[in-house]
Amino acid sequence: MARKKKNSPAEESENLPEAEARPQYITDTIITNYMPYVMSVIVSRAIPEIDGFKPSHRKLLYTMYKMGLMKGQRTKSANVVGQTMRLNPHGDMAIYETLVRLTRGHDALLHPFIDSKGSFGKHYSSDMAFAASRYTEVKLDPFCNEIFSGIDKNAVDFMPNYDNTMEEPVLLPTAFPNILVSPNLGIAVGMASKICSFNLGEICDGTVTLIKRPHIDTEMLMDIIKGPDFSCGGYYVYDRNKYKEIFETGKGSLKLRAKYEYDKEENCINIIEIPYSTSIEIILKNIADLVKNQTLKEITDFRDEIDLSGFKLTLDLKKGVDPDALMAKLYKLTKLEDNFECNFNVLINGTPEQLGVRGILEEWIKFRVECLRRETEFELEKVNEKLHLLEGLARILLDIDKAIKIIRETKNDKDVVPNLMSGFDIDKTQAEFVADIRLRNLNNEYLIARTEEISQLTETALMLKERLGSEEKIKAIIVDQLKEIKKKYQQNRKTEIITEKDIAPLEVAPTVESYKCKIYFTDKGYFKKVKLTSLRMNDDHSLRDGDSIISEEESDNTELLLFFTDKGQVYKSSVANFEPTKASSMGDYVPSKLGFEENEKVVAAVSYREEDEGNIVFVFKNGKGVKVPLDCYKTKTNRRKLTSAFSTASECVFAALEKQEVNILMVSENGRALLVSSSDIPLKTTRTSAGVTLMTLKAKNYLERAETVDGERIKELKKYKKNLPSSGAAYTKE
Fold first, then answer.
1. Which of 39, 219, 313, 419 is the most buried (most CB within 10 A)?
2. Is residue 143 within 8 Å of 172, Cβ to Cβ?
3. Where in the chain is the domain with CATH 2.120.10.90?
4. What is the pLDDT of residues 430-486, one digit of tens each?
5. What is the mean pLDDT of the segment spanning 558-582?
6. Are the beta carbons of 168 and 161 closer than 8 angstroms?
7. Domain 53-173 sits in which CATH superfamily?
8. Is the separation of the CB atoms in 247 and 284 below 8 Å?
9. Which of 539, 569, 657, 596 is nearest to 588 (CA)?
């Protein structure tokens, strides 16, 4: 008989009746497939619970506790990572990164949980990598005694690990509000948590006060818990209204600032502490960008000088730079001032809640009360168990000879316990205890000690029962524990609190565009700035009748200007303050532009860069000259005008910036000329110095003008070069 051919799966599927198409709503898909993942991330990974730990932290620390690392020598981090995988199967690197953050060496926590040896990187650097786990060593810090207190006394629930081979704690019974002492950042799905750290001493004091006075005013509690405290120090710029919002709602912003020192000898700023929310790499990039776009011209160099002594970022300053003004500028333009955005999301009984500082403390008190209640129940159970055994022993002690006789006359070992139970009316547990007593312990000392122990245990049991019946007694224990923890582990604040009043205001000037230009100054006081591109098209200047250009030079839009007037004053401005114009325009009238006094006129104009060093050379109508350091006209504040800018004993006919030797041709009213080098003019540190005689003049004669000469003209005018002072030589116009 022929075998029937079997259809292929594809052929069979073709013969099946077509399934009815059923619509599936996206909301149903999300609820069925996505929501379990969302809840897993929120509850089991990203959001901390009331003990202040996320599951990854808790699993790691409990593993170290079970490894016996509370005492003894450190072990390799790789050992800890391997053991932790029994509770946390997310990979060795994820576990090691968690361990790193909890170490003393990483500097992320005010009170580290892990005593470490080796390189663990630094919280304030994203580039400073930690060493591999096979090189570093760790053990639990003594501080961990306060987070495991009562864990072996049934203080918290336990649950099976992922493969049901061992148990792990659901929470750790922290004896202090670790949730507010250790900073925490967690990003879940649809929500996140960002909790700043507070000073342990302040938190302990605030919690004690809240326990004793549950209805205390929030403002008073804020005076006890003054503000956040970060391991990296720095400044917290205190704003009471914003802090109150965080205190009450758990959401808000904290302004943090770097701390610096000025080294006068080296003329540099050492930044020694930065905001917790940033890193040195971000700050270095900020500064580099500012230098590149010429917004930051006050420094000559900047570098990372972190070493074994700690954090340091050094800025070398140019001569004359005010360090406080520079730092005020950097605070505004870099991450040396940064905001810490608070979002106090915490899991309370498995449910995420956003709580303020007060709300978190209240929840922690409830949690801690429950922990101590469970510890008390555990201790009472143990006391009652021992008391039960000793009560059985006490009955035996009434007739010890009878007990010995029962044991001796019992033929089978298995019958000893039942015979003691029937002979003294005790239960099996008590009879087992009596039967296991060694013969050598049947002496008066042992028996009397056990009898006294019954009395002590009875008192202890009574005390524990009273504690269980009174929440106030449990809270009193919490208060004592918090006071003891504060005494043992309190540290001075690392983050200093300042207010806006302590910050000097600074208006940061907008960035000035840099481009080449040519500047002109006329005898009648007009100033014009012409871009080089415009000048190429047309260089015919328009001037007022009787006016002439007395100085012209190439400049940059970022340069600064000094306008010296006939009243011995100088007005400070910048090239950028004048709008670019065409050569055909008359330009800006300087006295009106800068707000001169009535009838005040410009006698000379000088341009310079902020970083320039040199002298201002003055030549006066009486033939005298003097040099004054340019620094005498640089001010720490943005002053618009300086009085007593130069000597008014004689009218000023010339002023120029000397960055290197300048040659000046002086021409007198009676037709004589003298070529003078600025190196021959004495330097005076007083702005109003009258100078020394350069050109000797006869009575009623005066210096008509002076001008700078360079290049080929110096060779042509060499005949006017004389030893000073001199009356010069007869001047022949070129």
1. 313
2. no
3. 516-730
4. 888 888 887 777 777 777 787 788 889 999 999 999 999 999 999 999 999 999 999
5. 89
6. yes
7. Topoisomerase II, domain 5 (3.90.199.10)
8. no
9. 596
C-alpha span between 640 and 275 (Å, rounded): 35
What's 516-730's CATH class? mainly beta
Express each pLDDT in 316-375 by its tens digit: 998 888 898 899 999 999 999 999 999 999 999 989 999 999 999 999 999 999 999 999
Q: Residue 582: pLDDT above 50?
A: yes
The values of phi and psi at residue 362, to 5°, are -65, -40
512, burial (CB in 10 Å: exposed 0-12, middle 13-18, buried 19+) = middle
Q: How far apart are the first and last CA of the chain?
A: 134
Secondary structure class of 325 (helix, strand, coil) = helix
Give Dmax (Cα) for the chain.
150
More confident residue, 14 or 581: 581
- Let me know if 331 is a catalytic residue: no
Residue 552's beta-bridge partner residues? 520
**CATH number assigned to the domain covering 362-489:** 1.10.268.10
**Residue 279 phi, psi dihedral angles, 5° rounding:** -140, 165
- Burial zone of 236 (CB within 10 Å; 0-12 exposed, 13-18 middle, 19+ buried): buried
> Which CATH code fits 259-335?
3.30.1360.40
- Catalytic-labelled residue, pool 34, 37, 135, 162: 135
Burial degree of 714 (CB within 10 A; 0-12, 13-18, 19+): middle
Q: Which one-letter amino acid corresponds to residue 9?
A: P
Q: What is the DSSP string of 418-460?
A: HHHHHHHT--HHHHHHHHTS-GGG-SHHHHHHHHHHHHHHHHH
pLDDT at 2 over 50: no
Strands 549-556 and 167-169: unpaired
Looking at residue 7, its pLDDT comes to 56
pLDDT category at 636 given cuts 50, 70, 90 is low
Tell me what percent of the residues of the chain surpass a pLDDT of 70: 95
pLDDT at 184: 92
Record the pTM: 0.69
Tokens of 432: 């087992």
Q: What are phi and psi of 530, to 5 degrees?
A: -125, 125
Domain with CATH 1.10.268.10 in the chain: 362-489
Token pair 């800018």 is found at 645
| Cα gap 513→574, rounded to integer Å | 12
Distance CA 70, CA 513 (A): 62
For residues 10 and 71, the model is more confident at: 71
Strand partners, 307: 310
CA atoms within 13 A on the CB side of 537: 8
Note the pLDDT tens digit of each residue in 159-206: 999 999 999 999 999 999 999 999 999 887 878 899 999 999 999 999
| Predicted local distance difference test score (pLDDT) of residue 686 | 87
Q: What does the mean pLDDT of the chain come to? A: 88
Omega cis (within 30) before 510: no
Instruction: For tokens 């955005």, name the residue.
Output: 341
Strand partners, 570: 564, 642
The DSSP code for 153 is G
Spatial CB neighbours of 529, under 8 Å, sequence gap ≥ 6:
517, 518, 519, 555, 557, 575, 578, 579, 580, 581, 587
The dihedral region occupied by 66, where left means phi > 0, alpha psi between -120 and 50, and beta the remainder, is: alpha
DSSP code, position 596: P
Among positive and negative, which fits the CA dihedral 276, 277, 282, 286? negative
pLDDT score of 68 = 94
Mind listing the pLDDT tens digit for each residue in 249-306? 999 999 999 999 999 899 999 999 999 999 999 999 999 999 888 888 889 999 999 9
H or E stretch at 405: helix 400-409
CATH 3.30.1360.40 domain residues, the chain: 259-335
Report the distance separating Cα 470 and Cα 464, nearest Å: 10
- Residue 3 has what pLDDT? 46
Report the SS3 class of residue 337.
Answer: strand
